[in-house]
Write a structure and sequence with these properties.
Blueprint: H1 2-27, H2 33-45, H3 55-65, H4 69-81, E1 83-84, E2 87-88, H5 98-110, H6 116-123, E3 126-127, E4 133-139, E5 144-148, E6 151-155, E7 161-162, E8 171-174, E9 179-182, E10 189-193, E11 197-204, E12 216-217, E13 222-224, E14 229-232, E15 238-239, H7 247-259, H8 268-273, H9 278-281, H10 285-293, H11 296-304, H12 319-329, H13 336-347, H14 359-366, E16 380-381, E17 388-391, E18 404-405, E19 411-414, E20 435-437, E21 441-444, E22 447-451, E23 455-457, H15 463-466, E24 470-472, E25 479-481, H16 483-486, E26 494-498, H17 505-524, H18 526-538, H19 586-599
Parallel strand pairs: 16-18
Antiparallel strand pairs: 1-2, 3-15, 4-9, 4-11, 5-6, 5-10, 6-7, 8-9, 10-14, 11-12, 11-13, 17-19, 20-23, 21-22, 24-26, 25-26
Length: 600
């Protein structure tokens, strides 16, 4: 019996010892959604970069997994295995094209591989026949006489051009004599005036007329003092493997070339002017152009294209691809739109942590990691040396630093950090929480949401509240976010709904432990429990009787004379005979004996 009691005590002590660890395990923080996504990506890639034969997928896999030396090595081998000479096709059997080559070049450059041959391939695909119409503008605050390649013209007070040039000059008056149309885009034009002046190149996409007023001004405007000179030349091209410009290929190639340190200014006119073409709108060109130029117009356009459910989606690609592309462009922007989009993506992860498609691109665009760079390459992390990882469009080519890396393929290492003007300097306004901007928002140094239009009152009702949910700064523990409706809430708020009732695993474990303890106690005190059950079933009640022998109801002893026959004693009505004692159960017999003695 003592041995059994020792076993029971040991079991109880064991359970009490492991209980805190079981409870602590329930409170152990699980992997974050982002960590879970990266773990899923690693599982998918395995040791062969997921066995992909797609150049695009291999490139995105390499960009996302470059933080791991082993995964990086596997994906680099896979990507190089798809290469044909210095270029790539869509698959290992496809012919080379601009987009695939650009994506592969960008991915390899991100891990600081030598891509000189690939850059040469892309630059060899330049064609100047973009179809753009180019104009030369000369302006001065006063009437001035100017010479263009030695021929004299006059800029009048009203800015109009008087005088004429020879037929072979490559210039002719246009736009009501305010500009010159450049008919020979291969020629240099040297301009000098007798007053201070400025010059600019203006371009117009094919099919437009001067009456439509759809013009684009080249990013570089030149100025000179009186009698000094400037030289203008049209430097514009696109990329193609045929005689027709490849718009999507040129978009990706511009980023790859800029990442590799090449000037992409000659590509911008074509990309800008052709962005609104029907076939190009679905490529989300504003994302590419914001990466390349960091101009407010492209930021505003990109934000305006965000779906109310906090994602981007045009018709050509999936919403996962388009959202990743937009987030790649907005990587350095700490704005409400970016945070909402990230929360939305995390809310629609699959159980394994991946997304329905484009997991690698999403991770690199939204949550990039530093690539693993071999220490023998002499390449270091940019910001370890007081430099700045900035978007490609925010760093002049002269300030771009080689031999430094940044987490994102859309970033370069820059020796200076461009300081954005304030919202007021951009002649904008910061709207109140209960207001919205009538036009697109722009980035300013003091806010990512600078309104350059009017701030108007927000409607008191929204999709979140109409659906029966609540707009709150954050959801409580008993609530969950409805990401699809958060975009309808005020700036900084999210849409919250009460969580559905569900059983608590911690409560279940505690209940199970209590049940185990009760079972053990029942085993230890089983004899007492048997007595209690017996008493409950028999209706026995121990008490002293007040009568003497022979009185009704008094259970006195019955005397028997020698040789006298005593008939079998019948049980008294309402009382059952006591069950026979088990010969091996001494505790139970002792207990029954005490009960009988109490009844005498």
């Amino acid at each position: 019996m003592k041995l059994k009691k020792g076993v029971y005590v040991f079991v109880i002590l064991f359970i009490l010892t492991i209980t805190p660890f079981i409870i602590a395990e329930q409170h152990e923080p699980a992997l974050t959604e982002v960590d879970k996504a990266y773990a899923c990506l690693e599982d998918k890639l395995a040791d062969n970069c997921a066995g992909t034969k797609s150049t695009k997928q291999a490139s995105f896999n390499l960009l996302a997994a470059s933080y791991s030396s082993s995964l990086q090595s596997d994906c680099k081998s896979t990507l190089n295995g798809l290469k044909k000479n210095n270029c790539w096709g869509e698959t290992d059997t496809g012919t080379c094209n601009i987009k695939s080559t650009a994506l592969a070049t960008l991915a390899l450059k991100q891990i600081e591989e030598n891509v000189d041959d690939q850059v040469s391939y892309l630059l060899d695909k330049k064609i100047s026949g973009t179809g753009l119409t180019w104009y030369l503008e000369i302006d001065s605050n006063n009437r001035t006489d100017c010479t263009i390649n030695g021929q004299t013209i006059t800029i009048e007070e009203n800015k109009k051009i008087s005088g004429s040039l020879s037929a072979g000059s490559g210039l002719k008056k246009a736009y009501n004599d305010y500009w010159f149309e450049i008919t020979n885009t291969e020629q240099n034009y040297t301009i000098s005036c007798n007053k201070d002046f400025i010059t600019a190149l203006i371009y117009q996409k094919p099919g437009s007329s001067t009456g439509s007023n759809i013009f684009h001004i080249s990013s570089e405007t030149q100025s000179a003092s009186e009698f000094d000179s400037v030289t203008e030349r049209v430097d514009s091209y696109c990329l193609s493997t045929s005689n027709v410009c490849d718009y999507e290929g040129t978009l990706w190639a511009a980023i790859a070339l800029a990442k590799a340190g090449e000037s992409v200014d000659p590509l911008i006119p074509y990309l800008t002017s052709m962005a609104d073409e029907a076939d190009n709108i679905n490529l989300l060109p504003s994302a590419f152009l914001y990466i390349l130029t960091a101009q407010d117009d492209y930021y505003s356009e990109l934000i305006s294209l965000q779906n109310t459910n906090s994602y981007w989606h045009k018709n050509k690609n999936t919403k996962f691809y388009d959202t990743a592309l937009a987030l790649l462009a907005l990587q350095n922007i700490n704005s409400n739109e970016v945070e909402r989009s990230k929360r939305y993506l995390l809310s629609i992860q699959k159980d394994d942590g991946c997304w329905q498609s484009d997991t690698a691109f999403i991770l690199h665009a939204a949550w990039p990691k530093n690539p693993a760079i071999s220490t023998g390459t002499g390449v270091s992390y940019c910001e370890d040396f007081n430099n700045y990882c900035v978007s490609i469009g925010n760093c002049d080519l002269t300030n771009k630093l080689d031999n430094f890396y940044c987490p994102s393929s859309a970033e370069v290492c820059c020796s200076v950090q461009v300081q954005e003007p304030t919202c007021s300097e951009k002649q904008g306004t910061i709207c109140d929480l209960n207001q919205e901007c009538s036009v697109g928002l722009v980035i300013a140094s003091d806010t990512p949401s600078c309104c350059t239009g009017d701030c108007t009152a927000i409607s008191t009702t929204n999709e979140c509240e109409n659906a029966g949910f609540f707009c709150r700064p954050s959801c409580s523990d008993s609530q969950e976010e409805k990401a699809g409706y958060s975009n309808s809430c005020s700036f900084g708020d999210v849409c919250c709904a009460t969580k559905p009732a569900k059983s608590s695993s911690l409560l279940l474990i505690i209940s199970l432990i209590i049940l185990i303890i009760l079972v053990i106690l029942a085993i230890i005190f089983r004899n007492q429990l048997k007595v209690w059950i017996f008493k409950r079933k028999s209706g026995y009640k121990a008490k002293k009787e007040s009568g003497g022998p022979g009185r009704p109801g008094a259970p006195g002893p019955l005397l028997q004379m020698p040789g006298q026959f005593r008939p079998p004693r019948r049980p008294m009505p309402g009382r059952r005979p006591a069950p026979a004692s088990h010969p091996k159960d001494r505790d139970f017999e002792e207990t029954m004996k005490k009960l009988r003695d109490m009844g005498k």
